[in-house]
Design brief:
The complex is a heterodimer of chains A (167) and B (143).
Chain A (H helix, E strand, L loop, with lengths): L4 H13 L5 H5 L1 E7 L2 E6 L6 E3 L4 E2 L1 H17 L10 E8 L9 E10 L3 E9 L8 E8 L9 H10 L7
Antiparallel strand pairs in A: 1-2, 2-6, 3-4, 5-8, 6-7, 7-8
Chain B lengths: L2 H11 L3 H5 L3 H6 L2 E2 L6 E4 L6 E3 L4 E2 L1 H19 L7 E9 L8 E10 L3 E9 L6 E10 L2
Antiparallel strand pairs in B: 1-2, 2-6, 3-4, 5-8, 6-7, 7-8
């Protein structure tokens, strides 16, 4: 059984939408694109994400969450069997504060996929990719062969039960 | 004087970081509190809105990262003598164990307070402080 990207896109939807009150929901993360080795996600601006009430800039933790999610999902796209990849570490450089009232886009790609570890890099921008506000590198673990036994069936079943809004 | 500067002064004078936390929307979203009656320890109570993986259930890695990053900046603001908001330059986060949906705590240490750059280390644990769930290093610019 190989990991097909359509199944993986369904997994992403299940992760983001199956639990209405979870952290994805609290932060308001959306999936923009899922391809093999690449994921783009976004967060729309809202007051509850603000870290500096004087400037209205969102807290760095929101950007960490966006990069952790985009990088982690990107890592999962290169697995042989549908599953998840726990984060080992994540390193983020903040090149500048985010502008308030503008959407944050997080893009991540796998730059090396090895037997046990997946290496990613990613960035966050607010519309202009050439002017990122944060950059990240991450490492993600591949779990043992039996960890995700029966997982695909559970995910596809959960996907069928999702109430997907019209987009 | 900015509103954040006012609450920072109040938080320092009363030695109560929660005064500052109450002014930061993202801190309220996570539900972070300063642990009462202790030397600056941060507490993240279990909350459904911080869950990332419902099947375990585990706290979202991003929520853990946000908690540590927020703790580092709050710790620094409380310990600094000047009224400037530190800007984060970089943040390095090691996930050591899956964070279960239970009480999580964080303690920070200012490793070096330079003329412009401050290095802060953070450690988060659940239950036993000797088995941390995650460790982080944050560097801030204070100018």
């Amino acid at each position: 059984m190989t990991n097909n990207i359509e199944d993986y896109r369904k997994l992403c939807q299940v992760m983001l939408r199956s639990n209405r009150k979870d952290h994805f929901d609290a932060i308001g993360i959306k999936i923009n694109k899922v391809d093999s080795g690449f994921v783009c996600m976004s967060i729309d601006y809202k007051e509850s994400l603000v870290g500096n009430p004087d400037t209205g800039a969102v807290h760095g933790g929101v950007i960490t969450t966006l990069l952790d999610s985009a990088s982690g999902f990107a890592a999962g796209t290169v697995l042989d069997v549908l599953g998840l990849t726990p984060t080992i570490d994540l390193r983020i450089d903040y090149m500048g504060a985010s502008q308030p009232h503008k959407t944050l886009y997080g893009e991540a790609e796998v730059y090396r996929n090895t037997r046990n570890i997946i290496f990613t890099r990613g960035l966050v921008h607010q519309g202009d990719k050439n002017y990122p506000i944060a950059h990240a590198v991450g490492t993600f673990a591949k779990m043992g062969a039996n960890t995700f036994k029966g997982y695909r069936e559970r995910i596809l079943k959960a996907y069928d039960q999702l109430e997907l809004p019209n987009e | 004087m900015s509103n954040l500067a006012k609450v920072t002064i109040m938080a320092r004078e009363t030695n109560n970081v929660n005064v500052l936390i109450d002014a930061i929307p993202y801190a309220k979203l996570l539900g972070v509190r300063g642990k009462e009656g202790s030397e600056l320890v941060f507490h993240l109570p279990p909350s459904e809105s911080n869950v990332g993986n419902p099947t375990l259930p585990a706290i979202h890695g991003g929520a853990i990262g946000g908690f540590l990053e927020l703790s580092a900046s709050l710790h620094l603001i409380m310990k600094m003598e000047v009224l400037k908001m530190p800007k984060i330059i970089d943040f390095s986060l090691d996930y050591l164990r899956a964070a279960k949906l239970v009480d999580t705590y964080a303690r920070c240490e200012i490793v070096r307070f330079g003329s412009k750059i401050v290095n802060v280390s953070v450690e988060a644990w659940q239950g036993n402080e000797n088995t941390p769930v995650s460790k982080a290093r944050a560097q801030f610019l204070v100018e």
